[in-house]
Design a protein that fits this description.
113 residues; mainly alpha; 71% helix; 3 helices
Amino acid sequence: MTFEIGQNILWIALVLVLLAVLLLYWLGKRMAPHNPSKEKLKSYACGEDIEGGQQQFYPNAFIFAIYFTIFDILAFIIATAMVIINQGFAPEFSAIAAIFAGIGLIGVISLRR
């Protein structure tokens, strides 16, 4: 009986957190100003104007950092999997692992475009 109550509380907490995150993103998008001026759209670095417009950007370091973060999170999930499964939270663990894998996959796909 206690175990079932604990599982229900975890699912309710997961749904509430996801709803709160979505609500905050939606409110931020609605409240953010959407009228950039010409001055705000100019390129600058450290407060100084850049001559020649935009500079070339090399995303290799950022792609490496994102891959490192994704694999670091997955390594943490795998390292704690046996403890979580032994405590009887296998469905919740699977849901959390699927969410992290989905976020990682979306990130990798968006970087390749």
